[in-house]
Amino acid sequence: MANRTRNNTTKVEALIESCRSEGKWQRVIELTDELKTGSPHNECLANFLIGEARLESYLEEHAVAAESTFGRAKNGLAEARRYLNLALGESGQKAGIALDAYLLLAKLCYACGEYEQSLENFIKAELNTLAEKELTLRSLKILAESYAIKGLCLEQQAHKPTSKFKKAEKDTEMICCFERASDLGLLYLQEYDIVSGSNSSSNNSTTGSTLNVNAGVQQSSSSFAISSTIPSSSATLEVNRRMGAILETALQRAPIVLIKAGKLQVAVERYRIMLNAIETRATQSLRLTLARQLAEVLLRGVSGTIYTPPFTTKSGGSTLRGGGAAKRLWKPRKYAARQQFTPRNQQEEVILLLLIAEALAVRDTVLSQSPEFKQARQHAMGNVTAVYDLLALATIRWGLVQLLNESFEKALKFSFGEQHIWRQYGLSLMAAEKHAYALRVLQESMKLTPGDPLPCLLASRICYESLETVKQGLDYAQQALKREVKGLRPSRSQLFVGIGYQQLAIQATLKSDRDSYNKLALEALERAVQHDGNDHLAEYYLSLQYALLNQLGEALSHIRFALALRMEHAPCLHLFALLLTASRRPREALGVVEDALHEFPDNLQLLHVKAHLQLNLEDAETALSTVQHMLAVWRDLYEAQLAGEEEKHSDTKSGIHLIHSSQMSDKDSNSVYAASLAAVSRVEQALSEAASSLSSFTQRPGPRRPWMLQIEIWLLLADVYMRIDQPNEALNCIHEATQIYPLSHQIMFMRGQVHVYLEQWLDAKQCFLNAVAANPNHTEALRALGETHLILGEPRLAEKMLKDAAKLDPNCPKIWQVFSLGQVMETLGDYNSSADCFATSLQLEPSCPVLPFTSIPLVFE
Question: What is the value of pTM for the model shown?
Answer without folding.
Answer: 0.74
